[in-house]
From TrEMBL:
Residues 11-134 form the Gfo/Idh/MocA-like oxidoreductase N-terminal domain. This is Oxidoreductase. Residues 154-317 form the Gal80p-like C-terminal domain. It comes from Dichotomopilus funicola. Pfam families: Gal80p_C-like, GFO_IDH_MocA. PANTHER family: CONSERVED EXPRESSED OXIDOREDUCTASE (EUROFUNG) (PTHR43708), GALACTOSE_LACTOSE METABOLISM REGULATORY PROTEIN GAL80 (PTHR43708:SF1). It comes from the Eukaryota. GO terms for molecular function: nucleotide binding.
Amino acid sequence: MSPQNEEPKTLRVAIIGLSASAITSWASTAHLPNLLSPSGRTRFRIVALCNSSLSAAHAAVAAYHLDPLTTRAYGDPESLARDEEVDLVLVNTRVDKHLETALPSVKAGRDVFVEWPVARDQGEVEVLRQALRQSRAAGKKGRVLVGLQGRWAPPVVRIKELLREGKIGRLLSSRVEAYGGSRDREVLPVGLKYFAERRVGGNPITIGFGHVVDFVQSVVGDLTLESTHAHFQLQRPDVRIRGPAQDDKIVETITSDVPDLLSLHGFTNIPLSSLPPNERKNTSPATLSFTFRRGQPFPGTPSLIWTLHGTTGEIRLVAPAGISLQADAYAEPVTIHLHTFAKGDGPDAVEEVKWDWTVTQREVGVRARGVQSVLFAFGDAVLAGGHGGEQGKKGWEERGWVELDEAAERAGQIEGWLEGFKG
């Protein structure tokens, strides 16, 4: 085949956890649509699936209408890691399986995308970090990126732009009021029963709250350790488990050891990327106050209210239908309003600030759009030859994805806050 007739290069992708029978559907609704979208096909090609057994992998190939002649099936992560015709591995298993499913591919030097939370605890995160360091020391170029895609949710990006443009002057304080992490305050579906088991590592705090506190701090800066006061409480320890959707009955009641209420308060160091040029020599910290309660808010109260108060104005983001700006909080419009103090306190002083999805994001469902921003940024960098070198020296914002060491810092921060809670 002549060079002009060669097919464009694409990254060869393997998915771990795309199941035909999974109770949760993150792999099929957030990752798969991006790989199969028109824009995704110019960047990626699915070449393998890995599930809990070989038969399960074959069933998933059939269920999602993938080509059985070009999609290899694996029943264990070690076999997949030996496949040298895989460039990128997407890990979509339950949190307590992240380490065992990602580790072989990390050791083999593959690029690996691990969903958030990285692993069940900091000990497991450190095992992954050590494996990555050893792999790179051996001359392998694999990277590990982590699914903290909320940092690139369009409303979050728009708020950072408003700060950078000086729309509210210098940021003085920020307040977050959030309700969610699960659909109900004291009921879980049977497939999410593990949300009440802290040892698993995936629950309303590490996932629901974790994503929000990450994208908020990506804008206003990380809470400083010495200034932060964190309070956690478990107010509803008895959690009812609802059976499969077809009968919708409560099948048991269990005792949770995962907190369902928290508050944070402390100072943040505002990142330069969130400051207007004339404020970048000012190192004054801002205050962040954050409250989170699992389950539904008071009727009529939005699930997420985020306000940012500055010297000359104030920004307010409201998400009525959910806290997951990185996923599916968009059943009702997510709005941003700007109050300019110089215009007074009347209705004319407040304006709605528009934000929008990109053309490529509109190719897929809402749940997949956040993941797309990270996958496409990474894919484009690799295909352009920017996988390492100068690309590797860039920070997360310029790079377009969060790497393992950066995500480990966020995981350690949340685990540190939780250390004093005994359940």
